[in-house]
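Person: At home tonight, work slowly through the protein below, taking as long as you need, and write a paragraph about the fold.
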Amino acid sequence: MRRAAWRRWSVVAAAVLVLAALPAAVGALPAHAPSIRPTDLVARIRASAHHPYQGYAISSGTAGLPTLPQLGSVSRLLDGDTQLRTWYAAPDRWRVDEIDLGAERDLYQTPDGQAQWDYGANQLTAVTGSAPVRLPRGADLVPPDLGRRLLAASAGTGGGQLSALPARRVAGIAAAGVRLTPADPDTTIGRVDVWADPGTGVPLQVEITPRGAAAPILVTRFLEVSLTAPAPPVLIPPAVRPGMGFTAVDAPDIAGAFATLRLGPLPDQLAGRERTGTPLARLAGTGAYGAGFTQFVVLPVPSQTGFAAYRSATNAGGTPLALPGGEGVLISTPLLSVLVMDSDVARRNYVLAGLVQGTVLRAAAAELSTFRRRR
């Protein structure tokens, strides 16, 4: 009897081991995707915004960016792993859950606006309309959204060279690959690799490799995916109930809140790049200069925040800078450059950041340090 039981349990154990190894075995199978010209694949990727999907993705970053005041969430996105569960029906109907150890933050996009549910804080925040400016968030790292935005951004930097990549099996799908090598030497991005479902064009894996590096510094990929529409109820934000914190704001109110800080004007040009952005962004006192991969942002910050950021950047090993009208400190990572500065002329503090070489931000900071607000 003991021998018979041993045989039965051996069969069960073997079956469990086979099932556990099945995902890895499937991922190791050779991928044979249809041959697609790089330009055709990019066109399918750009046209895939209306194709539904749902799945589980993970983003892994090794940017080495120190934590700065008010920018801690951005640092966490670029360093370490970010787990993402996503449901996508259309550009105005989707949901992304950012899952962490003991925490979960769910972001819902509806035709009327956005809602964010913080499970740990038991807090629901509803935003009506579209905010003119915002910080990067976990939803930006979902492979389809990131892949489309990176390929679209290349048009703002003189395009780049497209080349085909070998097919790769991603979440069980034989995905076709394309590599974009930016043409502008001022960007820190050396190449962007995207693997997408060859039929729908939905990106399944995205890798960003800095200029001169051999390995990618940011990889986001699906571990599980279904190219089908999610059930409508999963896209509905949670209903407000007793004991739950709830805040509702209009997107224009966010711009108004920035305006009350009296951050002041910014130049129309910095480092040879014209200022871009919406009128609301100008009203808020923030600025974006250039386009595509070489675009950088300028954010005037209150003195207390600016001094704290300056100390953090200095303690993180940033390079001190003597500017014509002030001082600054530059942090250059393989992917992202950040410069914190204090203008003695304007008596204002700024944070500059972008996927650009540090020399670009140094030139911009030198001009900004002597900028005087016009009456």
